[in-house]
C-alpha cells in the first residue's frame, strides 16, 4: 500500500501531519481512503488510553530514525489527518491547505522537530506522475518501433537502382538449392533488411544471399532399425565363415553356399540393321533418313543451341553490367582482366553456338533432301518398300519480333566483332610500335658498329654522314641479319564485318519470319504388296523372308546360350526380347553376342558384339538398354534388287556417284547383375579385382577412363567445370592436387599432429631413463613390477638391480633343473603361462556390476517359502547339515583373515607295527621286525590277533598337517582304524599380501597331511625306577592336496587314499588273503590306508571366474552351435554332471573333444617288456603314463579353463594334468585294441577331472591316469564320484541316468535311454579329423647320463638333510646305503609290490645291531624341488637321538621318451648298544 | 634422506570434514579413507576414520555438522597417484536400518595453503561472494551419490529389507576403472576443508604454487635430465 510505504518517511513521534503524497490518479486513492477509515477507529481507542508518548516511545524516537513498526506511527499521522473529516477528497487538490491546517495543531510539537520536517520537505518534491495518453504513446512509439510487413518486397527495391535482377542460373552457372524457408518469414526478414538499408544482404538476383541447403536428401547412412521389425533384412548381419580360396582368383567364390553364386542377366531385346545386303535402294535411303532423324531427335533433346544462346546472352549481360556499374570510371586491372576473359568466353561460345546452329540447319536440310530422294525413288520404281513418311510441321512465328531479335542478334555480333577487331587492331598497333622501337634500337647499334668499322677503315669519316648514309649502312648491315622492319598493321575492314555476319546468319539460321520447321518421321506408310512388285523386287522380298537371325551369347568365349531364330522382316528389325540368366562362377572377362544369319541350313556369322561387363552396381531393373553398333565386312552380292554388301551401287540412273555399303546395325541389349529373391544383388563385391574399373571421382561425373592427370586437367579447364557445384568437389580437389605437382593425394588422415606438443620428454630420454622404464613396466602390469612401491624420485636412485630380477626370470636358470631338456620345457611352459596371464589381465579390467556394487538378490517365492519353512525348523537338529556360507570377494582381505579349516575324522587300514612273535616283551629294544620270517601270511595274522588281545599296541597314529610351513598335529589315537574327529585351523597368507583372485589362483602351495606312528621308547630302564622314554614318530603315509583344488572347490569332503610307501620297514598291512593275480589283484591293491577328511577355507573365497571371453575356433559354426546347445541342455537338466564337448587347445582355440582321441602306439619297449601277459603290459603302460609329471593347468594357467594339449605336446612338455594323462592313456589303450573311453566326471580330491574307462573280460575298469591305478566298477573306494559323460573317438555321450556314481550306473552307451549321444542320426558326425599326430616322436635314449642324475639327486638330498639338522651332526651309514641302493632297482621292476619281506630279510642279516625305520619314496621326476619337499614332509630328519645314523639311496629308472621314475630310499638307524 | 638431496617429499594434510547437506536425511555419520598410488605411504596420522552421528539442529535445519578432524602426513616420490579422500555417509532409514547415504571423493588440494574458516552467523548475512571464495580456497564441497538398484523390484525389496546396494569397496569411487557398469543417483553434499603443507616438493622439481613468485633458487635442480623436467602428468 502506498500509504504505508510513505509513512516510513514520516518521523515516528507526534509530528504535525504533513501532506503525505498526492495519490496517483486511479484506484489507489479509494484504497487509501478505506484504509484510513479503518485506522481511524483504531486510533481513537488508542488515543483515549494514553495522551502522552510513553517512555518507550520517547526512547524509540531518540534512538531510531525509522520505526520498525509502521503501525504505530501511521496511527499517529493518521490521527492528525483524520480529524478534518471531509478533507479526504481534497487531499489531492492542494498541499497548502493541508499544511495550514496541520500548523494549527502544532502545540504538541517542539520547534526543532518542526524544522526537521521542513527540511525533509525541501528535499522531496511530490509531483503527480506523468501520464501519456494512449494515442500519444502510440505516436511516440511509432517513431521508435518498426513492424516489418510480411508482404513480398518488390524485386526492384532489392537490387541496386536501375539494375535488373540477374539470374545466375540462367547463365548456366551452378546455383545450389536454398534451404527451405517460409515465405512470410522471408518477407519479414527482407523488409527488415530494407528498413536498415543493408542492401548488401541481397544477391544479384534480388534474393537474400544464402548458402545452398546443406541437408542431403537421402541419409548417407541407412537406418539400422525399423520400428516394427528388428532389422532390415538387407542389413541383417549374416555370419559367413572366412574361406581360403582353393582356386585362382578368377573364381569369384567357391563354396557350398547356396546363394554364394552370382548371376548375370543378359537381356537381348533386338537388333536393327542400318544396312543389310538385302536392302533395296529405298531401304538404304530409308535407313539413312532414320539415322538423320534420330540424330535430329537427339540433338533436339540435348538442345545445345538453346543452351549456348542463353549462355551467350548471359555473358553479354554480365559484360554490360560490369561496364555499366563502373560507368565511365577507370576500370581496375582486375576488372579489365575479367572483362577480357568474358569477352574471350563470349567469342568461344558464339563460335560454338554458330557451329551448332549450322549443324542443326544442315541436318534439317539433309532430312528434307533424303525424303525428297525417297519420294523420287518411289515414284521411279513405282512401289514402296519402306513405311517411312516424313511430315514437316510448321510453327509460325511472330514476324515483327522475330525480325527484331534477328536484327538485334546480328547487331550484337557485329558490335562484338568490331570490338574485337578494334582491340585486335590496337594490339597489333602497339605490337607494331614496340617492334619498331626495337628495330630502331637495333639500327642505332648497327650504325654505331658501322661507324667503328668505318673508323678503322678510314678514321676520317665525319659524323654528319651517318644520318645520311642510311642506305649505305643497310648494305653494310646486310652481313649481320637483324629484325626485319615491321609493317604497320592494316586497318580493320569495318564495313565487311557486317556483311560477313549477316551472310553467315542467313546461312546458318532460318530467315526472320520464316516458320520453324519440325520434321516428324512416321513409319505408317503403306508398303506395296508383293504381287504388285516387279520380279527383281519380288525375288528380293522372297529372299528376305527366307532368312532368319539368331544371337549366341558367349561368356568368357564359351557359348552359354542362344536366342530363338527370328525371321527377318521387311523393315529389317528383329525383335528377340529374351533374357538369359547366367549363373556364373568364373570372373566375367568378356561377354560377347554373336549375330548369326540363317539361310536354309547354312548359318553365317554376321558380327561379333562385345558387351562390357557391368559394374556391380548395375542391377536388373535399373540397367539401361544399350545400343551397340556392329558391322561386318562380308561381301554379298545378289542378282535381284537388293543392293548387297561391300558392293558399289548407285542411286543414279547413269550409275555415277557409286556407293559402297557394309552390313551394319545396332544391337540393343543390356547386361546387368541379377537381383535375388530377397532383393540381394547377386553381384560380386566390388572390393575384388574387377578388371580395369577403378572407382574414382572422375567416373562419378561421367568422364570415365580419364586416368591421366594431365588429360584430366586439360579436360577440366576446357569444360569449365563449375567449381561451386558440389558434384564437382571431388574433381576440383583432385585437380588442385594435380596442379600442385603432387600426383599422389594423401589417402590418410592424421589426428596426432600435435603429438609432439604433448610429449614431455623426448622419445630417447624416455627409452634411456631407468626411472621411466620402471614406471612403464609397472603400468604394463609386468608381474614383478605390478605392485612395485616407491619408484624413486631421482633417476640415480633407480639401480640396475631392479631389472635384474626380470632378466633373471626371463633366463630360466638351468641350474635348478638337472637336465637341459627340462629347462627348455620349463621355459616353454613359462612362455605359455605368460601369454595366458596377459590375456587374463586384460580380461580382469572388464568389470561387471557385481564386481563393484553389492546388491541383495530379489528373494524368489521359493526362497521366501524356504525361509518360512525354516522358522519351523528345530533349533538344534539331530542331523545338522552344512550350510552354504557367504562368499567373500578377495579384494578386502588381509593377512590373518583367512584360515584353512581341516576336520580330520578317521582313517582306515593304517599299517600296523610288526609285532615280534617270539618276544612278547613290552620293550622292543632288540630290533623289531627283522626277526620276522617270510612265513607271515595266515599264521602271523592269527598270532597277531592274539597279541593284540593280550598286550600290544598295534599302532598309535596321529596326523600332522603342514601348510605354508606351519605345522599342526592331532592327538594320538590307537589302532589301525583310528578316529580323531579333530578340527585344525591353519593360518593362510597369500604371497606378497596380494589377495586378488589372480594371485590366489596361481598359488602353488600344497597341503601335506602326514600320518605318523608315535612310538615310545624307553631309555635307561635299568637304573632304578626312573623310566626315560623317548617319543619317535614314524612316517606311515601322506596325502597331498594342492591349495588350488581347495580354492576352486571351496571344500573337500571325502575319504582319500593315503600314499603309503611300498615298503614300510617295521610295518605291515593287513591284507586280504586271496591274491592270485588276475583282476582279483585289483582288490588287494585298492586296499591301502584311507583317511576321511573335510577341508575348507574360512571365510569362503569366491573362486575366480573363468575368463568371459569366447575363444576363436576352427570348428564349423554348426558344430560349435550344436555343442553349445548340448552343453547348455546338460547344464539345465543335469547341473551336477560335468559335460564337455569342446575344449581349448594350447593355442587358445576351441577344439571339439573327440579330435583328441585316436589310437596311438605306446613305446615298443613297454610292449616288449611283457610279451606274454597283456595284463602286465597294460599295467606297465598305465604306470608309464602316470610317471609323466602332473602339473595342474589351473595352477599354471591361472583363471583360464583347462587347456588340453595333444599327446605329442604332452610328451614333449612332459607335464600336464589329468586330461592329458587320460587322453594319452586312452589312446594307448585304443591302439592295444581295447575298448576305451574317456570319462568326464568328478573325483576326489581333484574335482572335475578325466578318467579312462576300459571294457575287458566283461567288466568295466576305471583307470586313474595320474596314478596309474585301476578300479573295478563296483569298487567302493574308487575316487571317481560322478560320471558326467563318456567320450570316444567319434562321439560324446551324456549320462542321462538317474545316478551319477559309477557304482550305480550302466556303462552301455548303446542304450539310448541311458546315454544321450552328441552325434545322432539327426546330426551325424561330419568326420572330424584328429588333432593328434599319427606317430609320437619318441626319444629312446636319455640325452644325459642317468648315473650323474642319480648322483646329483643323492647329493642334493644329503645336503638338504644336513641343512635341516643344524644342531645335530648327521652321520651316514654307508653300508646301509649301499644295501638300499641295491634294493631300489628291484622295487622298480616289481613296481613296488611284494618285496617288503625280502628286504627285511636282507636288511636283518646285514644290520643286526640297528633299529631301523625307513621307507622308499617313489616319484615321477620333473624337478628336484618336489623330491626335496617330499623328503622333508616325511620328517625323517627330525630324529633327535644322538646316535642316529641315516641312509639314503636314490635310483633313477628311465622309461622311453625321457620319462623318469625316481626312487628314494630313506632310513634312519639307531644303534642298539 | 639428506637435507640437500631429498629423495621423497612430504605432504601434510590437516583439515576437517565440516559438515554435510543432505536435505532429506538426518542422524548421519561418515567414514573417510584415503586412496593413493603405489608411490605414496602415510607416515603419520589416521588413514581411516569414522565420525560421530550428527543430527540437524534447530538453528540450521539443512546442515549437518561433524567438524571431524583429519590429520595425516604422506611421503611420496612421485605425484602420480596423488591422494584422494573418499567420504561415505551412512545413516538410518525409516525402519532404522543403517544404510548408505552417499559416496564421494576428491583429491587433496595440491597447492600448499591455509583455510580461513568462515564464521557462520545465524542470520542469513551477506558476505560478498568474492571474499568468500577467496577465503575458502581449500574448501571442497563434494557431491555425494549412491549406487542405484538394478530394477524397480530390487529397489523395492532393498527399501523393504533395508539393504540398499552398496559399493563393494568405497574406494571404487576414487577410481575410474569399472565405473561404467554402475548407475548412481545424487544425494547431497559434504564440505571439507584442508590446510596443506608440503615439504621438498620444489626441490624434487614439482612446483605446485603456480601463481606465486618462485623463490630465487641460486642453485637450480640438478643439471641435465632429472625429475625437474617432469610435469605433473607423471
UniProtKB/TrEMBL annotation, chain A:
Compositionally biased tracts (Basic residues): 445-456
Key words, A-Z: Coiled coil
Coiled-coil residue spans: 403-438
Organism domain of life: Eukaryota
GO BP term, pick one: protein localization to ciliary transition zone
Polar residues bias spans: 27-36, 921-937
Compositionally biased tracts (Basic and acidic residues): 38-47, 496-506
Region described as Disordered: spans on this chain: 6-112, 445-538, 916-937
Family matches, as Gene3D superfamilies: C2 domain
An example Gene Ontology CC term for this record: ciliary transition zone
Keyword Hydrolase on entry: no
InterPro entries: C2_dom, C2_domain_sf, CC2D2AN-C2, CEP76_C, CEPT76/DRC7_peptidase-like_dom, DUF5523, Tectonic-like_complex_comp
Protein name, entry field: C2 domain-containing protein
Recorded name of the encoding gene: CC2D2A
From TrEMBL, chain B:
GO terms under biological process: cilium assembly
Coiled coil: none
Cellular component terms per the entry's GO annotation: MKS complex
Locations listed in the record: Cytoplasm, Cytoskeleton, Cilium basal body
Chief location: cytoplasm
UniProt KW Cytoplasm keyword: yes
Superkingdom of the source species: Eukaryota
Matching Pfam families: B9-C2
Region of interest: Disordered: 213-234
Keywords, ordered alphabetically: Cell projection, Cilium biogenesis/degradation, Cytoplasm, Cytoskeleton
Entry similarity comment: Belongs to the B9D family.
Quaternary structure (record): Part of the tectonic-like complex (also named B9 complex).
Job of this protein: Component of the tectonic-like complex, a complex localized at the transition zone of primary cilia and acting as a barrier that prevents diffusion of transmembrane proteins between the cilia and plasma membranes. Required for ciliogenesis and sonic hedgehog/SHH signaling.
The protein, known as: B9 domain-containing protein 1
Species this protein is from: Esox lucius (Northern pike)
Upper classification of the organism: Eukaryota, Metazoa, Chordata, Craniata, Vertebrata
